Amino acid sequence: MTQPISSLALLLQHMTPVLNAGEYVFATVDSAVQLDLRQVIACMREPEGLSVVLEVAGAERLGFATDVRFAWITLLVHSDLQAVGLTAAFASALGREGISCNVVAGHLHDHIFVPSGQAEAAMAALRALQQGAQAAR
């Protein structure tokens, strides 16, 4: 395992966005008992229940609405959980392109969910952000 990076300049230079295959939805369940946790991409306990991110096929099997779909982008850089500015930088870059983003921080990587129809535009914006940071070094 690599060492986490906390420098914003280095995080941007090495963020390496990767578009994961598939489409994903957000849903809320009353209990994790309803789920096969192997199908859960991410989860967060909220006052209303357990919010989960699932692949569309799994969500459909469970009867969840799947009309609002997202693409999942992973930043391969090993970001320090205490690093400052990475989320703001990529959210701003996506926002300038009119792309909303929902961010999930994993222990090692940041994960960005963007509207499925804007996945390629999001990847282009993230690559441009990385290339700009690399050119500035």
Automatic annotation (TrEMBL):
Domain annotation CASTOR ACT: ranges: 71-127
Secretion signal, residue range per the UniProt entry: none
Ranges where the DUF2241 domain occurs: 5-68
InterPro entries on file: ACT-like_dom_sf (IPR045865), CASTOR_ACT_dom (IPR027795), DUF2241 (IPR018717)
Keywords: Transferase
Domain of life: Bacteria
Pfam families linked to this entry: ACT_3 (PF10000), ACT_7 (PF13840)
Keyword match Nucleus: no
GO molecular function, one term: transferase activity
UniProt-recorded name of the protein: Acetyltransferase
Organism: Hydrogenophaga crassostreae
